[in-house]
Amino acid sequence: MRNALLLILAIAVGGIGVASAEMHVSGYLAPHLMMYDQGEDNEANVGFGMYFNRFTFKGKMDGGEIVKAVGFRVESDISSETSSLLKWAYVQPYFTEELSFRIGHIKRAFSREWLHPTMDLITAMRHPTSDFLKGLGYTDFAYGLDVLYKAEMFMVQAGAYTSGTPKTVEDQDPALDFGGRVVAMPIEGLEVGLNAVMTTLPHDGTMQGSNQGVYPSETYETNSGLAYGFDVDYMTDFDKMSLWAQAEVGMGDCWTAGPKDAEAGDTWEDYEWFSFMYYYLKLRFMFTEELGFQLGYSMFDPVTENDDDEYPGTEYDKTTKITPGLIYFWTPLCRTEVEVQLCTEQGYDAQTGDGMDYDYTHFLLQQVLVWK
After folding, report:
1. Distance between CA 71 and CA 93 in Å, rounded?
2. What SS3 class is residue 359?
3. Distance between CA 10 and CA 13 in Å, rounded?
4. Which whole number is the average pLDDT over 56-85?
5. Can you tell me whether residue 46 is helix, strand or coil?
6. Which residues contact 121 (CB under 8 A, 6 or more apart)?
7. Do β-strands 141-150 and 225-238 pair in parallel, antiparallel, or remain unpaired?
8. Runs of H (alpha helix) within the chain
9. Widest CA span of the chain, in angstroms?
10. Could you give the C-alpha distances from 323 to 42, 64, 140, 227, in angstroms and in order?
């Protein structure tokens, strides 16, 4: 709580210095009650929580001849002391209304679900595919720089980002991650996106964030981890009803089992990589302006190779999640979501060679409030 209060105080004091700017303070929060099935006594797994609790301070001020305007944004999540406090924190100079760049704490340019604003998620929560991509370092917030160009029918974004989650230059890995995204808007309500990202991946199967200092410097000749994806977002209204649908598919390099020949002094490019694949589909259909239902389906496969001789059990590692639910808007900025989360995780019995399914059913009651 002390960190949160210090942040709010810093924003308030900083606001005095940009009093001539157009400023806006807002936020959103999502308290919930959840029954989390862990295969045990459900009574022990019921409790209250807070999926997010954001505080946002943003604005824009006039510039000069070269930089026409300067935007800025600081956003924190104060849901708990263990969560990452800082989210967005960047300065954005505009050379024209279409061309600008952002530098600071920003999101890597990959995956529509991760780039989608948290307060406007179609389902109550992001799907497991997002956590998987975050663990490998393809998504999530990072310090970096983005260049953006927005026109009437398309948008281009390209950036360079720190590897892992360092806070200073001297702490980060000796390589940068790179990402790019193109979004076409051919008709009203339709967005079609293509994106790719290159990152440094952990060589021993550990996830991003714990890889600092693991590699010798010669392995950084290139960022060999590559992921790419395709996504669609569509919104339409008819009478008092409306439909919002979103889909995404992606694939790329996962971790590696090791170099092809450890004694030959192979470099980073010679490593043998596993591949992953994921997809999801989400939609929200509103019967009226207040009442509707939402549905999500997602799957991710962390290792797509199915050679039982070399990689036994890799055909039994998929995770799927189905999330049907109801949504009711009390006001345009206040909604209640009731959702069932049907999860299946596949496992592998090394003794018998058989696959096993682990099924879980979670129940969620979530209240979302946006304040402006």
Report:
1. 6
2. strand
3. 5
4. 84
5. strand
6. none
7. unpaired
8. 2-17, 112-115, 128-136
9. 72
10. 19, 50, 23, 26
DSSP, res 185: -
User: Using CA atoms, how far apart are residues 242 and 180, in angstroms rounded to an integer?
Assistant: 31
Name the amino acid, one letter, at 240: K
229-247 pLDDT tens trace: 999 999 999 888 999 999 9
Across all residues in the chain, what is the average pLDDT? Answer: 81
Strands, DSSP E only, in 10-68?
Answer: 22-35, 46-62
Q: 65: helix, coil or strand?
A: coil
User: Rounded CA gap, 109 and 159, in Å?
Assistant: 7
| DSSP notation for 216-270 | -GGGGGS--EEEEEEEEEEEEEETTEEEEEEEEEEEEEEEEEEES-GGGT--GGG
Contact (Cβ atoms closer than 8 angstroms) between residue 108 and residue 197: yes
**Cβ distance 71 to 60 under 8 Å?**
yes
Q: Which residue has the higher pLDDT, 36 or 91?
A: 91
Give the whole-angstrom CA distance, residue 325 versus residue 342. Answer: 11
pLDDT at 301: 87
Q: Three-state SS for 290?
A: coil
| Distance from chain centroid for Cα 338 | 22
| Dihedral class, residue 252 (left if φ above 0, else alpha if ψ from -120 to 50, else beta) | left
Entry field: residues in the chain? 372
Span 15-53, pLDDT tens digits: 544 555 678 889 999 999 998 887 765 555 888 989 889
Quick one: which of 122, 101, 102, 100 has its CA closest to 113?
122
Within 8 A by CB and 6+ apart from 356, the residues are 316, 346, 347, 348, 349
Residue 210's pLDDT is: 39
- Classify residue 43 by burial, with Cβ atoms within 10 Å: 0-12, 13-18, 19+: exposed
* Band (171; pLDDT cuts 50, 70, 90): low
pLDDT digits (tens, 9 = 90+) for 115-141: 998 889 999 998 888 888 887 788 888
Whether 144 has a pLDDT exceeding 80, the answer reads yes
Phi, psi (degrees; rounded to nearest 5) at 17 = -75, -15
User: Which amino acid does the sequence have at 48?
Assistant: F
Token pair in block for residue 148: 């953006």
The rounded distance, in Å, linking the Cα atoms of 172 and 209 is 10
Please give the distance of CA 206 from its chain centroid, rounded to a whole number.
19
